[in-house]
């Protein structure tokens, strides 16, 4: 465990000095600053609807940014160590593949969490200033769900990284996966499922196979436990089974994380260090 | 200390190591030579537990493929190319290294010993090639391993670094530590090595005492600076061959005798060419055939 902590701390420090994470944090910061005052300005007129606006804007931003930054940093993490010969030196020390992978996972997760908290933090300041305490807790719950999304994408990125021979290959694969899960999946799957199944509940459950959809539903449930945000699909059977949908989506996200991390570990053990 | 038994390593259909077996005793130092692509680095990486292989490698009786963590505690490995990181300082890396080995070392003292004290807080990509080599040399030996593996350790080292390296070898050898060093120039280690291992095309061609190397060298070439007047005498009296203005080369079977003759003739400036790895291998092969 001491080895994991050492490796995680080194990864965390490296992560905080990573320019991508810096850009990510600054982007969040700017977006949060831009969104929050405008939305909160309408608070007196619109009441809770204005809060929804702030939070839904942040949901949308995080659903694009969190997977992107998680993939960018994690896909190059192992292959980068291999290319710089750092892995060759590190693994000649008493470090197991499991400790190395866990250290990477925890360190990357923490550095992204800190960057996200920093970015969200400014918006949080506005939220704390203007909103009642119960909405502040919703806000922090929302950040936690965003971080859950980063966990699954870090695991996915590490698997890509272990399997790639160059960092360009790894980044390219990561970007394709990001593009597919963020944009293409919605277009293809949702229209296909709804036309074939004609059952909003099953369609929604299948849609949660995409972790972004699962996290989106969880985020919406934080803001609006009644799921009225879902509009037409938010009524009837779906609303009655909201916990099934949320439970499934959470299980899928955790399942993916374990699956990707497990596969990355097996692949790492199977192959030569360099 | 180190037992390598019938080790084979392939990348697909390409076999890099072929049935390599040898052992190294406590306090012994061996140099590993061979042409580029012979398999030297691959062999060192197998022993360091970085590559999968067929066969058996035991470090102090511990099979590195079965108990890698225990075996790696006993190894110090200096890679051919030290890593470059732009996001971690030398001090932070050293700190992590000591934690990985579960040891408590005074960083100031170690950085001072390796003349890196002023560079402790620099990022590793800010180190010069020589400083980086010294940093990783320090992290090869600071945990006091029983077996030190070095892949062309003289790379990038300035005279200060070379002196440090030789001091390290002498000190650790004296304390019963063993060395396996892949080298490009045998002369750098001829004074410190006990054994020589010659690898070619993935096979171990020769393993024996380094003194055998001297016996096998045969003809040597002596390059001489021969000012006016001396140049002609060189060519007439010792069979020298002019290779440029005031420069003569002499090929001698008995270097000792040739050097005495040259000095007696008033030659002051000359150097004896170190035979290349390929020449050494050829001569060792010839010697083996002769025996």
Radius of gyration of chain B, Cα only, in angstroms?
Answer: 22 Å
What's the CATH architecture of the largest domain in chain B?
Answer: 3-Layer(aba) Sandwich
Percent of residues in helices of chain A = over 70%
Beta-strand level of the residues of chain A, as a percent range? Answer: under 5%
Number of domains of chain B: 2
**Total helical segments of chain B:** 10
Give the overall silhouette of chain A: globular
Topology, number of strands of chain B? 14
Mean pLDDT of chain A: 82
The end-to-end span of chain A amounts to 25 Å
Shape of chain B: globular
Word description of this protein:
The complex is a heterodimer of chains A (274) and B (291). By secondary structure, chain A is mostly helical. Chain A has one domain (2-270). Helix content of chain A is 85%, strand content 0%. The longest helix of chain A is centred in the middle third of the chain and has 34 residues, at 97-130. The radius of gyration of chain A is 20 Å and the shape is globular. The two termini of chain A are 25 Å apart. Chain B is 34% helix and 27% strand. The model of chain B has no long low-confidence stretch (mean pLDDT 87). Chain B has 291 residues and is an alpha/beta fold. Chain B folds into two domains: 2-214, P-loop containing nucleotide triphosphate hydrolases (Rossmann fold); 218-274, Alpha-Beta Plaits (2-Layer Sandwich).
């Amino acid at each position: 465990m001491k080895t994991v902590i050492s490796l995680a701390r080194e990864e965390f420090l490296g992560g905080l000095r990573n320019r991508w994470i810096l850009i990510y944090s600054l982007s969040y910061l700017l977006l949060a600053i831009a969104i929050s005052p405008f939305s909160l300005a309408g608070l007196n007129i619109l009441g809770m609807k204005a809060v929804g606006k702030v939070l839904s804007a942040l949901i949308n931003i995080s659903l694009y940014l969190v997977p992107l930054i998680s993939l960018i940093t994690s896909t190059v993490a192992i292959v980068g160590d291999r290319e710089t010969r750092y892995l060759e030196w590190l693994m000649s020390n008493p470090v197991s593949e499991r400790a190395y992978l866990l250290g990477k996972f925890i360190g990357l997760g923490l550095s992204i969490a800190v960057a996200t908290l920093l970015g969200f933090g400014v918006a949080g300041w506005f939220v704390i200033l203007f909103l009642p305490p119960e909405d502040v807790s919703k806000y922090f719950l929302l950040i936690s769900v965003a971080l859950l999304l980063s966990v699954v994408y870090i695991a996915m990125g590490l698997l890509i990284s272990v399997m790639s021979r160059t960092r360009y290959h790894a980044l390219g694969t990561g970007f394709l996966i990001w593009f597919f899960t963020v944009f293409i999946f919605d277009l293809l799957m949702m229209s296909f499922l709804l036309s074939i199944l004609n059952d909003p509940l099953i369609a929604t459950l299948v849609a949660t196979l995409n972790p972004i959809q699962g996290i989106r539903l969880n985020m919406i449930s934080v803001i609006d436990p009644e799921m009225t945000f879902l509009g037409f699909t938010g009524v009837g059977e779906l609303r009655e089974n909201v916990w099934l949908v949320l439970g499934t989506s959470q299980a899928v996200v955790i399942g993916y994380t374990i699956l990707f991390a497990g596969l990355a570990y097996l692949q790492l053990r199977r192959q030569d260090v360099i | 200390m180190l037992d390598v038994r019938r080790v084979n390593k392939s990348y697909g259909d390409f076999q890099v190591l072929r049935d390599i077996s040898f052992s190294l005793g406590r306090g012994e130092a061996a140099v590993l030579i061979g042409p580029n692509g012979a398999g030297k680095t691959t062999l060192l990486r197998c022993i360091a537990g970085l590559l999968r292989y067929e066969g058996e490698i035991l470090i102090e009786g511990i099979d590195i493929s079965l108990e890698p963590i225990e075996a790696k505690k006993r190894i110090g490995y200096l890679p051919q190319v030290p890593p470059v990181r732009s996001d971690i300082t030398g001090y932070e890396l050293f700190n992590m290294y000591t934690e990985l080995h579960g040891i408590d070392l005074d960083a100031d003292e170690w950085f001072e010993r390796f003349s890196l004290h002023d560079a402790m807080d620099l990022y590793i990509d800010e180190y010069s090639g020589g400083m980086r080599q010294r940093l990783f040399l320090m992290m090869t030996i600071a945990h006091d391993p029983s077996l030190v593996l070095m892949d062309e350790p003289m790379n990038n080292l300035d005279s200060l670094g070379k002196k440090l390296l030789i001091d390290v070898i002498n000190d650790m050898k004296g304390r019963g530590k063993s060395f396996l060093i892949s080298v490009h120039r045998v002369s750098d280690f001829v004074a410190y090595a006990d054994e020589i291992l010659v690898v070619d095309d993935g096979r171990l061609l020769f393993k024996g005492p380094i003194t055998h190397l001297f016996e096998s060298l045969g003809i040597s070439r002596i390059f001489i600076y021969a000012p006016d007047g001396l140049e002609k005498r060189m060519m007439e009296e010792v069979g020298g061959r002019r290779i440029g203005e005031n420069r003569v080369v002499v090929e001698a079977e008995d270097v000792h005798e040739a050097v005495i003759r040259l000095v007696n003739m008033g030659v002051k400036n000359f150097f004896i060419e170190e035979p290349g790895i390929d020449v050494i291998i050829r001569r060792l092969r010839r010697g083996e055939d002769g025996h």
